[in-house]
Amino acid sequence: MEFALSEEQCLLQDSVRRFLEQNSPLDKVRLAAGNTHTVQRSLWAGASELGIPGMLIPEDFGGMGLGFLDAAIVYEMFGRYVAPLPFLGTAVMAPLALMLAGSEAQQEKWLPKIAAGEIIAGVAVTESIGVREDAGVKAGKGTLTGKVLFVIDWAEADLYIVADSDHGLHLVLPGAKGLSRRALDTIDKTRSVGELVFDQVSAEPLPRSSADAVARVIDAGRVMLAADTLGAGQMMIEKSVAYAGERKQFGRVIGSFQAVKHLCAEMAAALEPSRSLVWYAAHALDEVPGDARLMACHAKSHLSEVGRFVARTATEVHGGMGFTDLLGLHYWFKRIGFDRQLLGGPELVRLEAAHLQGWAA
Amino acid sequence: MDLAYSPKYEAFREEVRAFLTKYKSQAPKGLGAAGRPSPEACSWQQLLIQHGYAARTIPKDYGGYGAKPDILESRIIAEEFSAARVPSALQNQGISMLVPTLLELGTEEQKKKWVKPTLRGEVVWCQGYSEPGSGSDLASLQTRATVDGDDFVINGQKIWTSTAHEADMIFCLVRTEPDKPKHEGISYLIFSMKTPGIEVRPLTTMTGHAEFNEVFFTDVRVPKTQIVGQRGQGWFVANATLKHERGMLGDPVAMETRFQALVDLMHEETVDGQRAIDNPIFRDRLVRLQAELAAMKFNGLRLLTSASKGEDPGLARLIVKLQSCELTHQISALAIDVMGELGVLYDDSPYLRSHGSWQWGYMFQLGLIIGGGTAQIQKNIISERGLGMPREPKLAK
Ligand SMILES: Cc1cc2nc3c(=O)[nH]c(=O)nc-3n(C[C@H](O)[C@H](O)[C@H](O)COP(=O)(O)OP(=O)(O)OC[C@H]3O[C@@H](n4cnc5c(N)ncnc54)[C@H](O)[C@@H]3O)c2cc1C
Fold first, then answer.
1. Residue A299's closest chain B neighbor by CA?
2. Helices then strands (H, E): number in chain A?
3. ipTM for this model
């Protein structure tokens, strides 16, 4: 019985921390925010040297064959450094969809490319959670028609994995005839989402698709978003404590005012137990299938709530400076805001959790 | 991350289960509120000690079971007793606070004399720390003990003293060195509540019960040998105790039991014929609490692992009192809201649910948020010790 990260996991997390500290400092993030693509490509190539794109992909396909807890602690670091990288779709949700639902040929074709960091894979599953704007795609014979919104890792994707309204998963190439694409600009400039509109677009079904496969891809995505918020929230607390230890008003550092200290304590008290919830939810994806979906819901919704509280509170601790672009604190604020709504906001996710337990008709 | 218990522990779990199957019928219904345990509760406690399910790691010489400390075994015992809905070992201030303090800092004679009957539920203790002028700022306490021959002579007043009206004994902080700085002039004494000069006045709380008391001391004579630790060291002795008290309050197993009772309640209560669980707003609040509870539960597992490795988990531990007390209170608050008008019924009213335990809990748990270091004091601790933020500047004298 051991509820802790292993030594290897701590080392992994440290190496990602160092990589991002060196290669993705805030000025680089700012650059990427103006122009995601070029910066993203070169950073992703760097991340590939650490094996990050293929961390969940089996070794047979050139990956590292690690588990979701490993992925979660890596994405926690991405959140910590607001890294402008296509991890969620490309390194987690797309490979998982291929592994769960793809044919051997599809796996052999795409997984090694993902693992090598050669391609970016966008993932379109938003409509499986909640339909907005009448979105949704219908599958015909080898084609898709309709539209999907909030496609994760949309920009520059070399491949899309798209869920239709009957739990079918499909591979679509960005140049396919009849496919039009529109960027959706969000508050968070460090990750891209967009829209795909299909007019009889030829698509290759993943033959082992199922409602369960789609749901598992979403579960994994939710746990990762929770981990991202954990990392981003942790950084916001550290920044608040540091700022409060330097900034002086009324002849003393503001960190000696109890009102400010208590805000920091409240943030820490809310965030610290969330860490264990994220660990367990990620662990359950690999090891405790019976618990996985409920815990993914809990992690996603709980971190959304804690994240919102930390994001606004940390901004308040920084006063007017927190509101400006100068410190760049808003990158964390927006990252957390994005994590909250994507793949289901907390109310929707809690309704799902209630359904899972037979508490909702 | 490995959440399986090794075969050794699984075997231990089987042992606990076998015990429970065999003896379940002898268990008292509940252990009742704090205070003096019933004769049935005492015999149950003694049976538990005999089999190592209470006082497990306390040496045999002092009336315990004498197993070597193993935090996972303790956890398994707690899990199994809770699953079987059998009352586990007695918890009171004597057992949770005084016993560990005596074992750590008491004389051989004190240990021999007090630990065993305390563990067995035969001697009940109260904690005489707080005073009318000294709550959060406990070290400012004014109750005086002066030396007269072989005795201390105590004068002063304590307040909020839980179970003092039923207690046999008190562990008490008194000022013995009034000229020393406040933390260095305190001594820790233990003495009988029957000592002449002690007057206990029950203090009714917001729950309507007298859960605690005022205690007045007028020329109370206590032999000098009844000090724990050195003269003037009482603050440090007490801190050893407070450490144990804070550990006492974060009990995820108990919180889970309360949560499950709330789930049951929401399946039973109806408004306009609709069950509370089918009301989307109540249900949303319920699931929200469930997620928080899960976070606290896994935080508990993380603490368990740190403890078994002898590591200091830092923040993960410092936040437990604040977060657990708050969450427990929120669970009761939702239960009250689910009951609506029925949630304000009290005493022996018709239509009262669960004997009024939710109403009582909602109030009593606010007391837990305040007692043993208020929420604000917890935030001071988290920010100063956990986050390394500056202490309050000292006021110029
Ligand atoms: C149910 C219950 C059981 C108890 N049992 C016992 C017992 O058995 N034995 C015993 O000795 N005592 C007991 N107590 C007393 C308890 O320890 C004190 O009530 C507690 O420490 C708070 O002290 P106080 O009541 O004087 O409040 P105060 O210290 O006067 O606090 C009032 C308010 O001021 C705030 N405050 C005070 N100091 C600070 C600060 N430095 N920073 C920020 N805010 C501050 C507090 O947070 C609180 O909100 C019990 C209390 C309760 C409620």
1. B291
2. 12, 10
3. 0.95
